[in-house]
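REVIEWER CHECKLIST
Item 1: Sequence provided? yes
Item 2: Single chain? yes
Item 3: Sequence as submitted:
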Amino acid sequence: MKIATVETIPVSVPYRHREVSSIVARDGVSDVLVKMTTDDGLGGWGEACCGADTASVAAAVQAMAPFVVGRDPWNRDAMRRDAFTHGLWQFRAGTGNFAWAGLDMALWDLCGRACGQPLWRLLGGLQQREASYFYYLARGTPDSLREQVADGLRAGFDVFYLKVGLDDTEDLAQVATVREALGTGPRLRIDANGSWTVPQALRNLRAIEEHGIDFVEQPVREHPLGLLGEVRGRATQAVCANEGLWSEADAYARIRAHEADVYCFSPYWVGSIAGFHHLSWLAHYEGAQVCKHTHGELGLAAAACHHVVLTLPNASEGHQQTAYLMEHDILREPIPIATGSRWGPIEGAGLGVEVDEDAVADAAERFRIEGQYLPWQDHQLRREER
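Item 4: Structure as written out by the authors:
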């Protein structure tokens, strides 16, 4: 069995409402689907993350295709070594990882389908029977926040997630509103996306201590190494790292430095499912937990990461996902976290999900006509006109 073809399909799928943080303001997910076929007719699918520019990631996947076509799909790590060494993608590691992750996912899908086994079996088997996912709150008015909390509780979510880092006073008010609506039981997490200084982070975390924050994600910027660890050493809340886990080397350094209690990343950050799996186990050896990160993903990437999560001894509750926010997907059947918080073992071979090619065609046509969902809005860029 050899790889015969690699096809890239840029797609756009809308959210039900805008996602807003201190970094992004976007209305949906634009990603690059990777369709791979073998010389004996087997097909596999992957999903590359678009990053800042979908077209550049599609171009990167095509530039990497010569390192894949004609080769045995079981030798994916050797292919990645060649692409990053001889293809010089080591010098553009961020884009390279986002692109290669889609190829890597399709290779895993092919291998699983070839042997009739789901990925979690190929990765060593189950460490847990199911995983839970968070409810992603949209910043808004007190009434809007209360309505979202009520919706999440009805759907069975018990981990809620709120972006902060835009305005200290408003952040604290929104946290208080959410906690009041949640009551004392469900967990509440916040993410500042590295927008606070150390004194600001410590001041804000003291101010919201009464609201029982489960963990704070990336309260301060990722560099220099040690800055997040300083907050961890001085705050009473658990600290989660996300920004700064940009590569295998970055993730390794931060995990070994005990920068955080929880590490939030994905195959996109480190370039492959195996890299995500290995580094998650390293975090386990260092006494830390792992929370699966979302860049905004469709069902293929959600399924691939779910396989990994089920094989981890240190997986947290409340992994990140956007399935609950999507108007639709590109799969034949919706994944469980499109309507609820929990997801058990996937029994199908490979990724264990089936692509709806009509839905892919519709999403590809939306991308062709409307372009990608930009991570920013015009009003963010015109500060001098206010």
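Item 5: Key structural point noted by reviewer: The chain has a mean pLDDT of 96.
Item 6: Recommendation: ____
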